[in-house]
Write a structure and sequence with these properties.
- There is one protein chain.
- By secondary structure, the protein is of the alpha+beta class.
- The protein folds into 2 domains: about 5-190 and about 345-400, FAD/NAD(P)-binding domain, CATH 3.50.50.60; about 195-335, no CATH class.
- It is about 35% helix and about 20% strand.
- It contains 15 helices and 20 strands.
- A 7-stranded antiparallel beta sheet has the order 17-16-13-14-15-12-18. The protein has a 5-stranded parallel beta sheet with strand order 6-2-1-10-20, covered by helices on one side.
- A hairpin with a 4-residue loop joins strand 4 (about 95) and strand 5.
- The longest helix is centred in the C-terminal third of the chain and has 22 residues, at about 380-400.
- The structure holds flavin-adenine dinucleotide.
Length: about 400
């Protein structure tokens, strides 16, 4: 292979969608990835149930992208959650809407979809080159590190879909940031998104409760309304879907104020007045644990959280205890390390890109997926935006090639 054209680097969902879009436009891409196989993070996402997208009004859907909405809106309107479902169906993968509105493939796994997708891409003429780690440019040439040594290719149009900077063992290590910084592309620093947090648990609590789920609570934090769900106590602190939902405002509060607290309502279905009345009943010879269980149904990890977070005088005072059950503050220390986050914010800012997702400083170089500077909660919003930007960048690149501007 001498001078493949066009080139896609990064074979996660964004890169594969870009390659598919290019193929449909008549440009069979050569796709490169550092890993031995495609879509490793996508496969990992399927381990706990692949949440492809979310069924809700498009307006609500778009709101989930916060500040990045204006730049992502056109991409998502052109590849909406409905389009995504039709696309999956075209690969022979039926989807369904779960009770929470989340859209999953039948079987919940990523592997069948990825297998069908890769086979279709091959039929479309797309060629894959695995174990090719992109190192940057040498003049006009793209330089790859491979098991056979260094290889160089000249691509007249290049689409980068290199992912964020978490779960580096699956390929997305964020090392590309250095390469783009050397090309004077202004990058937003990587920040953990959808991440867990450290909490200074006591040794006693950690031993008893690490690994236990805390179910059906309501959680809130500064500048964020209360939200219902579940989370998990870990050796280091807290993680899980409810924590991920609050992770951006918690992270921002830590950065801004140096401290932040998670405020929990341990019994969101019980009114404060009723709880005060129940816990205020005479305890007699009952232990506190029995009293909490009999009067409020508080047992297990929820009761342990009270013992862990409240001073003895509050535990002894029924009214103050009831108030704290409804408003338990857990001081948060810091986000877990970047590499553990489900996704990362930061990367290539939209201001560095034109409408076609091409780097204005590097004509012919397009970017897509999580490497762009946006963030969204879990719930299928991540994959939808990765696929949508992959499609938009693929279309942008096809337009660029059609106009002949690809002949640099
Ligand atoms: C545990 C987990 C569960 C998740 N669950 C969900 C979910 O249910 N729903 C959802 O919407 N999202 C989920 N996500 C997030 C989602 O998987 C990612 O947002 C998505 O995979 C990002 O797609 P991408 O194509 O932009 O990047 P990636 O999937 O990260 O792909 C980037 C590719 O680029 C390659 N690469 C990087 N650097 C180089 C280089 N220098 N040279 C060559 N190749 C390189 C990598 O090897 C990788 O294959 C989950 C993430 C994790 C970690």
């Amino acid at each position: 292979m001498q001078n493949p054209s066009p080139i896609v680097i990064g074979c996660g969902p964004a890169g594969l969608m870009a390659a598919e879009t290019l193929a449909r436009a008549g440009y069979a891409a050569h796709c490169f990835d550092a890993m031995p196989s495609v879509g490793r993070k996508f496969l990992m996402a399927g381990k706990s149930g692949l949440n492809l997208s979310h069924a809700e009004t498009l307006e609500n859907f778009l709101q989930r992208y916060g500040d990045a909405r204006p730049r992502l809106e056109a991409c998502i309107r052109a590849f909406s959650p409905d389009d995504l479902r039709a696309w999956a169906a075209g690969l022979g993968i039926a989807t369904f809407v779960g009770s929470s509105g989340r859209i999953f493939p039948e079987g919940m796994k990523a592997a069948p979809l990825l297998r069908a997708w890769r086979a279709r891409l091959r039929q479309q003429g797309v060629q894959f080159h695995m174990r090719h780690r992109w190192q940057g440019w040498q003049g006009e040439q793209l330089v790859f590190d491979t098991p056979e040594g260094e290889r160089r290719f000249r691509g007249n149009a290049v689409l980068l879909a290199l992912g964020g900077a978490s779960w580096s063992k699956l390929g997305s290590d964020g090392a590309w940031a250095q390469t783009l910084a050397e090309k004077k592309i202004p990058l937003a620093p990587f920040r953990p998104a959808n991440c867990g947090f450290d909490v200074a648990w006591s040794e006693h609590f950690r031993e008893r409760c690490a690994g236990l789920p805390v179910k059906n609570v309501s959680a809130a934090c500064p500048n964020f309304p209360p939200r219902r769900g579940d989370f998990v106590i870990t050796l280091h602190g807290v993680e899980g879907s409810l924590i991920y939902a609050l992770s951006a405002p918690l992270r921002d509060a830590l950065e801004r104020d140096g401290n932040a607290a998670l405020t929990l309502d341990l019994l969101p279905d019980v009114a404060s007045e009723r709880l005060i009345a129940e816990l205020g009943r005479p305890r007699g010879r009952d232990s506190l644990a029995n009293h909490l269980r009999r009067r409020a149904g508080l047992t297990g990890v929820k009761a342990q959280l009270l013992y862990e977070c409240l001073p003895p005088e509050t535990l002894r005072d029924a009214a103050r205890l009831a108030t704290r059950v409804k408003r338990l503050q857990i001081p948060i220390q810091r986000p877990r390390p970047l590499d553990e986050a489900i996704s990362t914010a930061g990367g290539v800012p939209f201001t560095a890109l034109n409408e076609s997702l091409m780097l204005t400083r590097l004509p012919g170089v397009f970017c897509a997926g999580e490497m762009l500077d946006w963030e969204a909660p879990t719930g299928g919003y991540l994959l939808t935006a990765c696929l949508a930007t992959g499609k938009a960048a693929g279309m942008g690149m096809a337009g660029w090639l059609r106009q002949g501007t690809g002949d640099r």
